[in-house]
Protein backbone atom coordinates (compact mmCIF):
# COMPACT_ATOMS: atom_id res chain seq x y z
CA UNK A 1 0.00 0.00 0.00
CA UNK A 2 1.23 3.50 -0.81
CA UNK A 3 1.19 6.13 1.91
CA UNK A 4 1.38 9.90 1.79
CA UNK A 5 4.91 11.05 2.58
CA UNK A 6 5.21 14.55 3.99
CA UNK A 7 8.68 15.98 3.38
CA UNK A 8 10.15 18.76 5.51
CA UNK A 9 13.41 20.04 6.98
CA UNK A 10 14.66 20.78 10.48
CA UNK A 11 17.86 22.16 12.01
CA UNK A 12 20.15 19.29 12.94
CA UNK A 13 22.69 21.46 14.76
CA UNK A 14 23.35 25.21 14.52
CA UNK A 15 26.66 24.65 12.72
CA UNK A 16 25.45 21.95 10.29
CA UNK A 17 22.09 23.54 9.45
CA UNK A 18 19.05 21.87 7.92
CA UNK A 19 18.50 18.22 7.12
CA UNK A 20 15.57 16.51 5.42
CA UNK A 21 12.83 14.37 6.90
CA UNK A 22 9.86 12.29 5.75
CA UNK A 23 6.75 11.79 7.86
CA UNK A 24 4.34 8.93 7.17
CA UNK A 25 1.34 9.09 9.48
CA UNK A 26 -1.54 6.59 9.31
CA UNK A 27 -4.94 7.97 10.34
CA UNK A 28 -5.20 5.82 13.48
CA UNK A 29 -1.62 6.18 14.69
CA UNK A 30 -0.91 6.40 18.43
CA UNK A 31 2.87 5.99 18.17
CA UNK A 32 5.56 7.57 16.02
CA UNK A 33 9.04 6.11 15.50
CA UNK A 34 11.91 8.49 14.76
CA UNK A 35 13.75 6.32 12.25
CA UNK A 36 17.37 6.91 11.22
CA UNK A 37 19.41 5.35 8.43
CA UNK A 38 22.51 3.17 8.32
CA UNK A 39 25.97 4.68 7.98
CA UNK A 40 26.22 4.17 4.23
CA UNK A 41 22.59 4.72 3.25
CA UNK A 42 20.01 7.48 3.56
CA UNK A 43 16.41 7.96 4.64
CA UNK A 44 15.17 6.99 1.17
CA UNK A 45 16.80 3.56 1.22
CA UNK A 46 14.59 0.61 0.36
CA UNK A 47 15.15 -0.79 3.87
CA UNK A 48 13.82 2.31 5.65
CA UNK A 49 11.06 2.78 3.09
CA UNK A 50 9.85 -0.79 3.63
CA UNK A 51 10.08 -0.53 7.42
CA UNK A 52 8.01 2.67 7.30
CA UNK A 53 5.35 1.14 5.08
CA UNK A 54 4.99 -2.05 7.11
CA UNK A 55 4.69 0.01 10.30
CA UNK A 56 2.08 2.21 8.65
CA UNK A 57 0.14 -0.96 7.82
CA UNK A 58 -0.29 -1.47 11.58
CA UNK A 59 -0.94 2.21 12.38
CA UNK A 60 2.52 3.24 13.56
CA UNK A 61 3.80 6.52 12.15
CA UNK A 62 7.44 7.09 11.19
CA UNK A 63 9.62 10.19 10.98
CA UNK A 64 12.66 9.42 8.83
CA UNK A 65 15.56 11.83 8.76
CA UNK A 66 19.05 12.39 7.40
CA UNK A 67 22.26 12.92 9.30
CA UNK A 68 24.09 16.04 8.07
CA UNK A 69 26.87 14.13 6.26
CA UNK A 70 24.28 12.24 4.21
CA UNK A 71 22.30 15.42 3.55
CA UNK A 72 25.46 16.65 1.81
CA UNK A 73 25.59 13.50 -0.29
CA UNK A 74 27.69 11.13 1.79
CA UNK A 75 31.39 11.12 2.52
CA UNK A 76 32.92 11.09 5.97
CA UNK A 77 30.65 11.12 9.00
CA UNK A 78 30.83 14.12 11.28
CA UNK A 79 31.65 14.00 14.98
CA UNK A 80 29.76 11.89 17.47
CA UNK A 81 28.52 15.09 19.12
CA UNK A 82 26.86 16.20 15.88
CA UNK A 83 25.21 12.79 15.40
CA UNK A 84 23.86 12.70 18.95
CA UNK A 85 22.48 16.22 18.68
CA UNK A 86 20.85 15.35 15.33
CA UNK A 87 18.95 12.52 17.02
CA UNK A 88 17.66 14.94 19.66
CA UNK A 89 16.73 17.51 17.02
CA UNK A 90 14.85 14.87 15.03
CA UNK A 91 12.87 13.90 18.14
CA UNK A 92 11.97 17.53 18.74
CA UNK A 93 10.93 17.99 15.11
CA UNK A 94 8.77 14.87 15.21
CA UNK A 95 7.09 16.05 18.39
CA UNK A 96 6.39 19.41 16.78
CA UNK A 97 4.89 17.68 13.73
CA UNK A 98 2.71 15.27 15.74
CA UNK A 99 2.60 16.30 19.43
CA UNK A 100 -0.31 13.99 20.25
CA UNK A 101 1.62 10.82 19.32
CA UNK A 102 3.81 8.85 21.74
CA UNK A 103 7.43 8.81 20.61
CA UNK A 104 9.93 6.02 19.99
CA UNK A 105 13.44 6.60 18.68
CA UNK A 106 15.84 4.29 16.87
CA UNK A 107 16.84 3.17 13.43
CA UNK A 108 18.80 0.79 11.27
CA UNK A 109 22.36 0.00 12.39
CA UNK A 110 24.39 3.23 12.90
CA UNK A 111 21.41 5.43 13.70
CA UNK A 112 20.12 2.99 16.30
CA UNK A 113 23.45 3.14 18.11
CA UNK A 114 23.53 6.95 17.88
CA UNK A 115 19.99 7.06 19.28
CA UNK A 116 20.87 4.93 22.29
CA UNK A 117 24.07 6.89 22.94
CA UNK A 118 22.07 10.11 22.91
CA UNK A 119 19.48 8.71 25.31
CA UNK A 120 22.22 7.29 27.55
CA UNK A 121 23.82 10.73 27.93
CA UNK A 122 20.52 12.37 28.88
CA UNK A 123 16.84 11.44 28.45
CA UNK A 124 15.22 12.85 25.32
CA UNK A 125 11.98 14.64 26.12
CA UNK A 126 8.82 12.68 25.21
CA UNK A 127 10.77 9.56 24.07
CA UNK A 128 9.39 6.39 25.68
CA UNK A 129 11.34 3.58 24.02
CA UNK A 130 14.24 2.59 21.76
CA UNK A 131 13.98 0.33 18.71
CA UNK A 132 17.09 -1.18 17.11
CA UNK A 133 16.85 -2.59 13.61
CA UNK A 134 20.14 -4.56 13.55
CA UNK A 135 22.14 -2.96 16.38
CA UNK A 136 25.80 -2.86 15.22
CA UNK A 137 27.40 -4.45 18.28
CA UNK A 138 30.84 -4.63 16.65
CA UNK A 139 32.54 -4.08 13.29
CA UNK A 140 32.63 -7.05 10.95
CA UNK A 141 35.53 -9.29 11.89
CA UNK A 142 36.33 -7.31 15.07
CA UNK A 143 34.11 -8.95 17.63
CA UNK A 144 33.55 -7.26 20.96
CA UNK A 145 30.92 -5.61 23.14
CA UNK A 146 32.38 -2.16 23.78
CA UNK A 147 29.65 -0.54 21.68
CA UNK A 148 27.06 -1.81 24.16
CA UNK A 149 28.65 -0.41 27.31
CA UNK A 150 26.53 2.76 27.26
CA UNK A 151 23.29 0.77 27.21
CA UNK A 152 23.46 0.27 30.97
CA UNK A 153 22.78 4.02 31.28
CA UNK A 154 19.57 3.80 29.24
CA UNK A 155 16.48 3.77 31.47
CA UNK A 156 13.68 3.31 28.91
CA UNK A 157 12.59 0.00 27.32
CA UNK A 158 14.63 -1.26 24.36
CA UNK A 159 13.68 -3.61 21.52
CA UNK A 160 16.43 -5.38 19.56
CA UNK A 161 15.44 -6.82 16.18
CA UNK A 162 18.49 -8.80 15.11
CA UNK A 163 19.14 -11.38 12.41
CA UNK A 164 20.70 -14.72 13.26
CA UNK A 165 23.24 -14.20 10.44
CA UNK A 166 24.15 -10.62 11.36
CA UNK A 167 27.95 -10.35 11.12
CA UNK A 168 27.87 -7.11 13.14
CA UNK A 169 26.08 -8.70 16.09
CA UNK A 170 27.25 -12.23 16.77
CA UNK A 171 24.63 -14.03 18.83
CA UNK A 172 27.15 -15.40 21.31
CA UNK A 173 27.94 -11.76 22.19
CA UNK A 174 24.56 -10.08 21.73
CA UNK A 175 22.51 -12.49 23.82
CA UNK A 176 24.63 -12.11 27.00
CA UNK A 177 24.59 -8.32 26.58
CA UNK A 178 20.80 -8.33 26.47
CA UNK A 179 20.58 -10.70 29.44
CA UNK A 180 22.79 -8.42 31.54
CA UNK A 181 20.58 -5.43 30.76
CA UNK A 182 17.61 -7.23 32.29
CA UNK A 183 13.90 -6.55 31.99
CA UNK A 184 14.27 -3.28 30.10
CA UNK A 185 15.44 -5.21 27.01
CA UNK A 186 13.50 -7.39 24.58
CA UNK A 187 15.53 -9.31 22.01
CA UNK A 188 13.80 -10.78 18.97
CA UNK A 189 15.89 -12.92 16.66
CA UNK A 190 14.99 -12.98 12.98
CA UNK A 191 15.68 -16.41 11.53
CA UNK A 192 18.41 -16.43 8.82
CA UNK A 193 18.41 -12.61 8.43
CA UNK A 194 21.68 -10.73 7.92
CA UNK A 195 22.51 -7.13 8.87
CA UNK A 196 20.44 -5.81 5.95
CA UNK A 197 17.56 -8.24 6.69
CA UNK A 198 18.16 -10.49 3.72
CA UNK A 199 17.06 -14.02 4.57
CA UNK A 200 17.77 -17.54 3.36
CA UNK A 201 14.41 -18.57 1.96
CA UNK A 202 15.17 -22.28 1.75
CA UNK A 203 16.27 -22.67 5.36
CA UNK A 204 14.12 -19.97 6.97
CA UNK A 205 11.55 -21.63 9.22
CA UNK A 206 8.83 -19.02 8.73
CA UNK A 207 7.01 -17.95 5.58
CA UNK A 208 6.31 -14.53 7.12
CA UNK A 209 7.93 -11.60 5.33
CA UNK A 210 10.84 -10.32 7.44
CA UNK A 211 9.56 -6.72 7.50
CA UNK A 212 6.05 -7.85 8.37
CA UNK A 213 7.57 -9.91 11.19
CA UNK A 214 9.49 -6.94 12.58
CA UNK A 215 6.40 -4.72 12.45
CA UNK A 216 4.32 -7.36 14.21
CA UNK A 217 6.91 -7.85 16.93
CA UNK A 218 7.21 -4.09 17.45
CA UNK A 219 3.44 -3.80 17.86
CA UNK A 220 3.38 -6.71 20.35
CA UNK A 221 6.26 -5.10 22.28
CA UNK A 222 4.36 -1.82 22.48
CA UNK A 223 1.27 -3.58 23.79
CA UNK A 224 3.14 -5.55 26.44
CA UNK A 225 5.93 -3.15 27.45
CA UNK A 226 4.70 0.38 26.80
CA UNK A 227 0.93 0.66 26.21
Description:
- This protein has 227 residues and is α/β, with parallel strands linked by helices.
- The protein has a single domain (6-226), classed as Rossmann fold (3-Layer(aba) Sandwich).
- The protein has 6 helices and 8 strands.
- The chain has helices at residues 46-57, 68-71, 80-97, 110-121, 171-181, 210-226, and strands spanning 6-13, 17-24, 31-36, 60-65, 102-108, 127-133, 158-163, 185-190.
- It has an 8-stranded mixed beta sheet, sandwiched between helices.
- A hairpin with a 3-residue loop joins strand 1 and strand 2 (17-24).
- Helix 1 crosses helix 6 and helix 3 packs across helix 4.
- It is globular, with a radius of gyration of 16 Å.
- The two termini are 26 Å apart.
Task: Give a brief description.
With 227 residues, the chain is of the alpha/beta class. It has helices at 46-57, 68-71, 80-97, 110-121, 171-181, 210-226, and strands at 6-13, 17-24, 31-36, 60-65, 102-108, 127-133, 158-163, 185-190.
The total domain count is: 1
Oligomer: single chain
Query: Rough shape?
Result: globular
Radius of gyration: 16 Å
Provide the β-strand percentage band: 15-25%
The total count of strands amounts to 8
Using the coordinates above, name the CATH class: Alpha Beta
Number of helices: 6
CATH superfamily: Alpha/Beta hydrolase fold, catalytic domain
Amino acid sequence: MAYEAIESKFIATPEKGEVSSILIRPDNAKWILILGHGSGTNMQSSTLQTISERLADIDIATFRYQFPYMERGGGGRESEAVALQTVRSAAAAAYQAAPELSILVGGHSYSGRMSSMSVAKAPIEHVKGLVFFAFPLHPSGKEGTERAEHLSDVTIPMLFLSGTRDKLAKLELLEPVCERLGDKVTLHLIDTADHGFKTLKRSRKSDEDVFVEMARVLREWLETSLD
